[in-house]
């Protein structure tokens, strides 16, 4: 039987990772990266690195400059860092 709480818990990892990187899932991100980001969010729910990611988030600083190397979606997150409209206002992490 599937643990649906696990899906919710692990999909929260991508949101927290984006927040720590200063990425705001705003209208610009949704319109330009929506379908691919939805895939990332869904895939995060069943990611094989989810335990590592949860541990990383529990022990990492409040702000991180780059996505961690273990993340299979690091390239997508790095692309978002290149989009000024995707960054949280006042964010100094690039």
Arithmetic mean pLDDT: 77
Work out the helicity level: 55-70%
> What best-fitting shape do the alpha-carbon axes yield?
globular
Q: With helices defined by DSSP (H or I, 4 residues minimum), what is the helix count?
A: 4
- Strand content bin: under 5%
- Summarize the main sheet: none
Provide keyphrases for this structure.
about 90 residues; mainly alpha
Concise account of the structure shown:
This protein has four helices and no strands. The protein has 94 residues and is mostly helical.
What does this structure look like?
- The protein has 94 residues and is mostly helical.
- The protein has one domain (4-86).
- The protein has 4 helices and no strands.
- The chain has helices spanning 4-20, 27-44, 50-59, 74-81.
- The longest helix has 18 residues, at 27-44.
Write the layout of secondary structure elements.
Elements: H1 4-20, H2 27-44, H3 50-59, H4 74-81
Helix pairs in contact: 1-2, 1-3
């Amino acid at each position: 039987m599937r643990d649906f709480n696990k899906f919710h818990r692990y999909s929260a990892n991508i949101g927290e990772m984006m927040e720590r990187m200063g990425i705001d899932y705003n209208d610009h991100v949704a319109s330009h990266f929506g379908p691919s980001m939805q895939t990332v969010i869904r895939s995060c729910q069943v990611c094989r690195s989810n335990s590592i990611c949860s541990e990383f988030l529990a022990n990492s600083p409040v702000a991180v400059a780059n996505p961690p190397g273990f993340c299979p979606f690091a390239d997508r997150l790095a692309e978002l860092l290149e989009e000024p409209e995707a960054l949280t206002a006042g964010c100094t992490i690039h």
